[in-house]
## 1
Amino acid sequence: MAELLQFAFSGLTVGAIYALVALGFTLIHNASDIINFAQGEFVMLGGMTTVFMATAGIPLPLAMLIAIVVTTGVGLALHRFAIEPARGASPVALIMITIGASVFLRGVAQIVFDKRFHSLPPLFGADPIQFGGAAILPQSLVVLAGAAVIVALLWLFVERTLLGKAVIATAANRLAARLIGVDTRRIVDFSFAVSAAIGAIAGILITPIALTSYDVGTLLALKGFAAAMLGGIGSPLGAVVGGLLIGMIEALCAGYVSSSYKDAAAFLIILVVLIAMPQGLFGRVKVERV
Amino acid sequence: MNLRALIETRLLPAILVAAIVIILPMFFPSGYYYRIGALVFIFALAVVGLNLLMGFAGQVSLGHAGFLGIGAYSVAIGPTHFGAPSWLCLFAGAILSGAVAFAVGRPILKLKGHYLAIATLGFGLLIAIVLNNEAAWTGGPDGMNVPALTLFGWRVHGSDAWYWIAGATFVGGFLLALNLMESPTGRALQAIHDSEIAARVLGIDVARKKLTVFIISAMYASVAGSFLALFNGLVTPDVAGFLGSIELVAMVVLGGMGSIFGSLVGAAVLVVLPQVLTIFQEYEQALLGLIVMIFMIFLRQGIVPSVTAALAGWRKC
Amino acid sequence: MRAVQHFTATAVIGLCAVLGAALPASAQIKIGAVLSVTGPASFLGDPEKKTLEIYVDEINAKGGVNGQKLQLIVYDDAGNPNNARTFATRLVEEDKIDAMVGGSTTGATLAMIPVFEDAKIPFISLAGAIQIIEPVRKWVFKTPHTDKMACEKIFADLKQRNLTTIAMISGMDAFGKSMRDQCVAVAPKAGIKIATEESYGPRDSDMTPQLTKIRNTAGVQAVVNPGFGQGPAIVTRNYSQLGIKLPFYQSHGVCSKEFIKLAGPAAEGVRLPCAALLIADKLPASDPQKPVVVNYTHTYQQKTGQAVSTFGGHAYDGLMILVQAMQRAKSADKAKVRDEIEKTKGYIGTGGIVNMSPTDHLGLNLSAFHMLEIKGGDWTLVPGT
């Protein structure tokens, strides 16, 4: 029993990481239908900037704030200088732009930061919490809490604020939104900025567990994207559930079946789920107009 | 269709491409250029196949390097573990890729948009993971040696030999793709791309056509992968990895989706550019990303269609 | 006609494409280096590149080799063997190098070996696997200890402590897998039984499931972790998180202060085989390696602001062995240099004392490794090793 609990804790830890990254995909997708492959780099920027600011002597809380602000700026710049100018392009071209952006950001990070691995001190100490014969790090719970708070905030935002409704309107039909007076460019600006901020926060919370380096973004973006799709792109709750699910599958497979195939198990399950439920777990069925 | 149209749309482009293949080596100062040329044609072959899938049929595939991997490992595992001749393993690899595409394509191609993308991505990753783990067969992360190809008793060796083989095969693949595009199947695919529902209304068996082009594109990639492995004499699991798939997609999009000439240009750009950028040392990655972004923002239909449109516009002046 | 338009477009683009011009020839000795400066092995390639650049500059400042200046040409293969092979071809055909020091990973090295063997250019590899020098190839040498040696050193220490049953948890990257294979092969002869094995992906963030299974396996007396990069640091942290008290061994892939920093207090008591470079300041004054490693440590730290790692040390050794061979041969002639490399005797480097021979293109034995233990956040030498 303790064994199963330990596997579950591992799944929650890793799953919470994926969930936080996946959340970053949903907002941009909701506002503009784009999959932003540079999302992983936002996570990287959050962690690395904090590390380098802290090493330069800036107190940790301030370093975290600076990291979030810097990353938000990068997200805005990405939209203004790379996505906006290419607004009429096909979805694949836009995805390619985000991929180019991710390569660019990685290349810049190499030069500005370095190529080594770094860590941050955990928020509530490194002593594991013992429960039922299994041990979980306090930071894992922090990551989970972070994901929960962000989902709650996103839900509140969309359901209760006018700006949130404007985002949904932009996603549903951009032309119609503009016709009713929504400044769609500002909305997409906003969604990129918030996604970047979410990514930065994810990076800061994740680094005490998973470490960070200039290229940590690639794999995280992959898993985060998979989690977002599994949960149904566009649904923040789906992103979190998708992330936790992938984490759990990986941990249980590593524990009970084979540790070398745990990633394969996760992707196999995703394939099976998508074939059975083509909109993902919580995705809205898209009505196609002819 | 009359003879003139036939020559115009199929023969002439193929002859032009063949001319490029034949004339280019006259400008090669050393064996290094033959290697670059061979790599360009090898990747261009895979890109033509992917272009059929993405550009014409409009189906995104983020796992295509998986088929590259199947082809590459066929010519490694076959001769090493079964003693079969390399050329036979090449064909076997292509057929195996086609079979895998058939098995996987049926359920996956029902998905749309980003969901199809993630499904193909997952599939590509699965292949890469299996290739990495099954070390007894595949040699694991360090890969395995690939015995050289022997054709009619002559051991194929050296960048110049592979340049001609890759070039000739590319011309063949190019011609085949052109034929496919001008055939009823090709037109059906373009109809599907424009509007799947309308195509279905016209009586086109959408699922079957999509599966057909998926299988064909898989086989193109497999042959390219086999060539790559035989050329390098070594194969590693990262040939099937996620980065490889992204590179292939980038080649399609950069060159121009739906333009078969574009496949050649896209492959050439992404093979040659890293070589050119080495003078920038540590700024290479950042520059590469920047160049890709700039290309996509300003030449958003891809290089060949954008330049064609520009030339056409200029001609009108 | 669409086709002709397309062709014209392609031709226009082709004319616009310019390949980098070939470097002009000069009376310099050209040393090529293909390193994984970016990508999954940048942990290895980055210090290697920095080391080569620092020391080529130093050698040139002192007048060069045989009166000629050295020119270092570095290409980044990003961890991709296909790229490595392309750059190797470029170094041979375009840049016309005299010798090659490089190949951060085994995959890249194996991909490049045929190119350098064909071109008859001496190639000193910086990768770990034993296949690079076994079977011995005429033009290929290497400086890093083999993973087989690391296993043997670890197993010898285990026997010393009367621990005979172990578990292994290995990274699924090339380094981890190669060392795991060697350990499995060497274990019976060393009298070690491997009770169970687990693995993890090199970029995974939590290895507690695997370690839980190891903890629950009966009879395990110690755990060995072949791997490099961030994985071992996370494994070490998880080890402590789960409260596993069994002796824990790391591999030579993490011989750098960074590992201690990343693993934190969990690294206390961990043992691993490392070259003398890591304990430069703690070596007894009589140790012949001391001047070399102290010098390298101070130079590297001063010029880069980063702590030394074994990988940079291997690059240093590769360069120095090459340069000394050129000095003995009194020329940069490839065949003569190759012969002199093979005759390297008593070269004192960061990795150990090198004695090569026609059947041994590595030249190190087990004494080149020291067993270190991490105490109080720093390295200490396990006495007698």
Note: Chain B touches chain C through 51 residues (CB under 8 Å).
## 2
Amino acid sequence: MLNSTVKQLASDLAAKRVSSIEVTQYFINRIKLLGGVYNAFISIDEEKSLAAARAADQLIAAGKAKPLTGIPLAHKDIFCAKGWLTTCGSKILSNFIAPYDAHVIERFSESGAVIAAKTNMDEFAMGSSNETSFYGPVSNPWDCAAVPGGSSGGSAAAVAARLAPAATGTDTGGSIRQPAALSGVCGLKPTYGVVSRYGMIAFASSLDQAGPLAKTAEDLALMLNVMAGFDARDSTSLQREAEDYAREINAARGEPRERAKPLKGLRIGLPTEFFADGVAPDVAHAVEGSIAEFKKLGCETVEVSLPNMHLSVPVYYVLAPAEASSNLSRFDGVRYGYRAPEYSDLIDMYKKTRAQGFGAEVKRRILVGTYVLSHGYYDAYYIKAQKLRRLIAQDFVAAFKKCDVIMGPTTPSTAFKIGEKAGDPVQMYLSDIYTIAVNLAGLPGLSIPAGFGDRNHPVGLQLIGNYFSEARMLNIAHQYQQVTDWHLRMPDGIKV
Amino acid sequence: MKWETVIGLETHAQLSTRSKIFSGSSTAFGASPNSQASAVDIALPGVLPVLNRGAVERAIRFGLAVGGKINQRSIFARKNYFYPDLPKGYQISQYELPIVEGGSLDIVVGEQQKTVHLTRAHLEEDAGKSLHEDFRGMSGIDLNRAGTPLLEIVTEPDMSSAQEAVEYAKTLHSLVRWIDICDGNMQEGSFRCDANVSVRRPGDPLGTRAEIKNLNSFRFMQQAIEFEIKRQIEILEEGGKVVQETRLYDPDKNETRPMRSKEDAMDYRYFPDPDLLPLVLSQHWLDEVKAALPELPQAMREKFMREYELSAYDAVSLTASKELAVYFDAIARHVDPKLAANWITGELSSRLNDQNIAIADSPVKPEALIWLIGRIIDGTISGKIAKDVFRDLWDGKVVGAGNLTLPAFKVEADRYIEKMGLQQISDRGEIEKIVDQVIAANAQQIAAYRSGKPKAFNSLVGQVMKATKGKANPAQVNELLKRKLAE
């Protein structure tokens, strides 16, 4: 069961070779045993999880099972789940029991999946190392002294340590792909608008997108099938026909006699900017190795350019904080969440509550965001950044005229040490340099394990597709995973 | 030296949708605190706004009614500030691109017409309410009103007196009810005005303005603006300077007093709300809304003046509401419009007001008034008796008043007049007989009249009317009496 994929577990459950109670209990036992080692979780509720597992077993027995019925999943603590503590990694929500389900949670429970636990994360998803969490940093299962990446660090660590078969995350500037890469798992950020943001605590609304983390591309497809779909409660949710993201997973192109080349004719775009000075040699080496593998599968490579990509980090650090400064205004101590125990008047209550309730990184971004929206600065920062955002998106439009999918490293380096970049925000921000532009353009991005670098730290390969090309991207990743086994490797120390 | 007053108004009209602008909660007034506050209204973590189409439709209706430009693409923006009754820490409003720009409203002050130009009208959500009593040193928050849809309607500084401002507000108030976008209930806060007031010497640039809030009746608006004009003139005449500030009107003391100055003005950090896509309106929808608009008050006013030759004053009175205008129009088409106007603004209005009945619920339907006025004109009943008949119509003593078609009603009503013996006596012989009797019995009065006391004549007329129970044709009585006395 340890290394079983969601697909395998689903088929075992459907065939009644195993019950949801058994699977759920197995992972909860692992969470209880190892969750603390990595600090990957914020809350577990065994009773609730087992009750859901029992209900799932009844559905299976009644022949009413859906694809994920009975599968325990770990959810990032950014998703409201009815009756569950939902903290977003912050002290300010450290007492908040959500009274409703997020769209994503609702879809999983309709599908019969079980909530195994809620995962640790950077506070309000602001961070790239899972060190900004009020609940403390998460350790990388491949190296306990290293970060797992962030902000979905708990989810990535949970999948890497096989504490859950799959997990959910959210990605505003790389928060699914970067921890997936650093923790050696697969993570997908869908096209903006594919997964409803309803019930997902907002960081930067125009960039936030939920997605799955799992061991295989095929599992990502099964997860996305449940998560995706129009939701009238989110005005930015896209009204599209429901699609089966696993439909193309085994699609092979070319003649039957060329089975060895299932990706024949696929044009991989390699942006020069992704392979320039900033990337660490061990990362470059692993990524080049996996691209060579893709060539063996029949792909061609073309050089493309994203000339405005160097602007993506500064643009992002204007727009995301601007939206965040406003989105986080509701945490004021008035209606729910933490309130300072002592204060003299209303203004003092606001000040103390927010001073005590938010961590340093969140405060930094609220300050930056408030500044860039202020009278007299708005045009120079916010408006300018919006214009550049369009240029960055246009770069991709131009690139996709020359290629079918873009590939490159997900991150410039492998997992860094806990504390190594915590004192230097700019260094930290630069660890998302390859992922941020994808959010700014609203495109789908995928990170898959592509080997190992120095100190046996996992390396992630990023695939960037055109809008709504998730099914195709997952097919490409799946074909790669048919001929490689990086994604099935497990860290030492997780077997108990 | 003379002073010139410059006034602009900002009005918040609560749109009459059943649910809120960004959530499904009810907008009904008066529910127990927080019973109409959903997850979205409380601003729980993770919730998102979804725009109410009905609110947009009402804004379009308004824009079309004032001849404004409907922006087919408009943007919702966040206005950021902290206050306990503002749950998200920002209000969703429209800033750079409102749904309506321009347009105008014609007002009548006395018999003078004037055009007030509108700057814009934009959609936004209302805040909740802070309750400072009953919580022993703490404040309570009621979020029932949070998220109620508002249309903020802003004028150019086109008004030059408190009276003009009040006329504009009344005209706007009538319009929003006319086109059915707002119930206009000022006590419940469905229609709230703020006034920007400044004074200057004629020809000078605009003076520094004060914004006056809390004008929740037309009377208060009049008083507050008049007070404010006086206050500003006094300051300037004493060589002082008016400071730009927000002032609150206190109706108990009839004065305005400072609320906050410009220095305290907040930086609202407006930016486009990323949770809401730009609001894009199809031409098809605009055409549909336009086609469904009722005939507008301005058009009806002009028609009344042109076709029925009413004065501007009467035309304004009779278009105070759509129901009233439709009622009048239904009658004026059939009988003398001036008589119709008199009956409606006189007898009917006073009874409706006395009993607080809306014209739509009047027990006297237009058919009944058409008949009644018709019978006055054709001489069947006298004007005096008509008032009694009107009372009987009102009291439902005339069978079928309002329930029958006009021809059927006429038959019934005529039968009623006959039965009650109310017909006017126009038989010359019959009146002459009574006149003779009165002359014979009132030698003294006649002497007085002949010695130059014209009042005595009225007394004689009165006696004839009394003898006929008011049914004698007054013109004939006058004519006969005069002739006989001259003999």
Note: The CA atoms of residues 261 and 297 of chain A lie 4 Å apart.
